[in-house]
Amino acid sequence: MTDIDLTQLTQLHYINKKLVSGYHISEQDNLAWQELDQQQEQYAALFSALGHTLVHDARGFFHFATDEGTANMGKISRAIALFIYTLIEHYANQGQDPMRALFDKDVDLELCQELVLHNKVLYDQLEIFSGTDLRKDVLMRMVRLGMAKAKDKESVFRLLAPIHRYLDALLEVNEDALESAEEL
Amino acid sequence: MIIAKRVLNTLTELWPVLETLMKRFKMGDFSIKEVQSIIKQHFPHYSGAQIYKETNRLLSQDILVPLAKSSQLEINRAVSDFAAYLLQDESLGVAAEIHVLVDDLERLSAKLTKAVGDDDYGDISRYTRIMDERVRKIVKLYQHNENAIYNLVEQAKANGSSMSLSKRYKAVIEAFDEYIEPMLEMLDISGAFQICFDTIELSLTEHLLHLKQSGRDANTIRMLEQLRTRILDMHHIGRESLRQSADMLMPLREELRQNTLVTRQAAKVLGLIRKRGLDSVMSAHQPFFASEPMHHQLGSNAQLVAYMAGLSEFEEHDFEMPDASAAEPYRAPNIPSFRDVRALFKPAKGNNKARKQQLIDVLDTHYPELESDELLYLYQKLINDPSLTLSQSERLETKTIAGKRFALYPFIDASDATTTKSSEQL
């Protein structure tokens, strides 16, 4: 059993508040990330005593593992998934390297407009009808979840490492599902 | 006749110019105007005459040579090779290049065998020298290609987000297809190279034995020995270089594969979503975060600490209800009746002696068995009793009652006194 020394966990309040709200702590959150990284065992023990599972993803972020979300959260998650996948397609269509562009390029309102315009059928399912909707419903939420960083008065966004979870999910959609869809 | 040292001096002095020419024009041609403007750019303090002089120097020493039937210039091939070596600015050759050299080596080896058979010492040393050159060239090519691959990898890694995907990886894929893979095939343990080198080495050993037995020309023998060592070494260098090149390229190829995979999968999944709807496709796979109950859990640091403290002290054990029969019956406090106590102070005739006594002392002497808090309770009751006439001392006194020390302004039983002020300090 790991000894938990609460005096060492100076960022506990912030970290706990963020993680329970679904936020992903990545390297951008300097202080919290450093402390989690250094005191990982203690935090993991503490949170597991509280009934949470602290997950450290080697690609540079921490989050709480949950296997069930609320209906509303599920909808938000699907919206984020759709946004990321359309963004990948957009970059690939432009002949760019999507894995790099996702993390290195900014997402601005113009790009949002373009995504919604080109994928109207898809975004209609989420009742997202314009770039502004996309920004408000998806990007701002991603910022709150620690998956994106807002810059320039929230007009430009940069995606962060935690979106790897969506890339994993993308690769998980397996052949069976694809095949059964083709049969339809 | 151009003096080597003078050329080297010029190269040293005008190196920045040559470097720029190499980088800007690669192997292409350029005009004399361009050379002059580059000199001007690197040496801005030079006058027109000086620039003209420097240009002339480059031309007269054959560092820059004119293209045939043209006024354009190019860098002397020997100089550009040297500069490319210095700048490590090498472009990747193809495996076939090395293959040709190895074939040549095989051919020369056959000729050498013939020369040894004919005891033609002139031919032996000639072929040995040529073979030696070929081997050196192969080693040089290995190193050259390794550098080229290094540059290629650096280029692909460098700020490539603006470069298009196909462009960025084209060179990497080409390097794999045209160099690494055929080379790996050739250097394979039972590959063409190995067989060829084994044959060459074997025949060289035979020649050496033959020459040594004939006891002639120590010089030729030494050359042959050197050649044999060099060939063995070459094979080793080839393997090492290739391994390093592959190590450098592999991560990039992996990255490319990952990219292709992600892109293809994204297109497939989006297609699927179009057909079957977002919810049905993604519900099973989407990541989850933060559920509603989590929101309502302990928030503040203090709460967490308290909760944790509780958790760490928590021990599970069975609680036993107390047994009713084992419980002791209730016992009233052992305090004498207040009436009896008050009677002690009731004014009575001929009892003057008891008067003027401090209340607390009287209580203490009459009831030595009582606890201090019980005595104080009685004392408190007495001084609040209106039927008694009491006065309070103005002096602070320290008393020891039932083993406890108290500081107080004691009340005195004085039925003739009128003050009943109560101010007590414990």
SSE topology:
The complex is a heterodimer of chains A (184) and B (426).
Chain A: H1 12-20, E1 25-26, H2 30-38, H3 40-49, E2 53-57, E3 61-65, H4 71-93, H5 98-104, E4 106-108, H6 109-118, H7 120-124, H8 131-144, E5 148-151, E6 156-159, H9 164-172, H10 175-183
Antiparallel strand pairs in A: 1-3, 2-3, 4-6, 5-6
Helix pairs in contact in A: 4-5, 4-8, 6-8
Chain B: H1 4-13, H2 15-25, H3 32-42, H4 48-60, E1 64-66, E2 73-75, H5 77-87, H6 95-117, H7 121-157, H8 165-187, H9 192-214, H10 218-276, H11 278-282, H12 292-295, H13 301-313, H14 338-343, H15 359-366, H16 372-383, E3 390-392, E4 397-401, E5 404-408, E6 411-413
Antiparallel strand pairs in B: 1-2, 3-6, 4-5
Helix pairs in contact in B: 2-3, 3-4, 6-7, 6-9, 7-8, 7-10, 8-10, 9-10, 15-16
Describe the model.
The complex is a heterodimer of chains A (about 180) and B (about 425). Chain A is an alpha+beta fold and about 180 residues long. Chain A folds into two domains: about 55 residues, Arc Repressor Mutant, subunit A; about 110 residues, Arc Repressor Mutant, subunit A (Orthogonal Bundle), CATH 1.10.10. Chain A contains ten helices and six strands. In chain A, the strands form two sheets. Chain A has a three-stranded antiparallel β-sheet. In chain A, β5 and β6 form a beta hairpin. In chain A, α4 crosses α8. The mean pLDDT of chain A is about 85. Chain B is mainly alpha-helical and about 425 residues long. Chain B has three domains: about 80 residues, Arc Repressor Mutant, subunit A; about 180 residues; about 80 residues, no CATH class. Chain B is built from 16 helices and six strands. A two-stranded antiparallel sheet of chain B has the order 1-2. A two-stranded antiparallel ribbon of chain B has the order 3-6. In chain B, α6 packs parallel to α9, α7 runs parallel beside α10 and α8 crosses α10. The longest helix of chain B has about 60 residues.
- Secondary-structure element order of chain A, as H and E? HEHHEEHHEHHHEEHH
Number of H/I helices of chain A: 10
Coarse shape of chain A: elongated
User: Rounded to an integer, what's the Rg of chain A over CA atoms?
Assistant: 18 Å
Based on secondary structure, the structural category of chain A is alpha+beta
CATH topology of the largest domain in chain A: Arc Repressor Mutant, subunit A
